[in-house]
Amino acid sequence: MDRKGGGKRRTGEDALQKGAHHDAWGAEGTFLLQTPEKRELNQYWYSPHTIATLVKEIEEHAKKAAFLSTPSVFFSLKDPGLKSGSCIFDVDTQWESLPNFVKWNFNQPQHIDESYHHVFDYIVIDPPFVTPEVWIKYAEAARLLLRDDGKIILSTILENAELLKQILHVEPQLFDPSIPHLVYQYAFFTNYKPTYLSSPNPEISMD
Question: What is the mean pLDDT of residues 182-192?
Answer without folding.
Answer: 94
